Amino acid sequence: MKPDGSAVLNEVAGWTLHQHIELASTNDSARSLPAWHAVCARRQHAGRGREQRVWISDEGGLWLSLVVPTPGPAQDWQALPLLAAVAVLRVLKSLGVDQARLRWPNDILVGDRKLAGFLVERFHPDRAVVGLGLNLFNHPEQVQPALAGLTLRLADLLPQPPCREELLEKILQEMRRVHSQVLSSGFAAWMGELEGVWQINRSIRLILHGENEPLEGYFLGVNEQGDLRIQEKSGELRTLSFSKVHLLTEH
Ligand code: BTN
Question: What confidence score (pLDDT) does residue 187 get?
Answer without folding.
Answer: 81
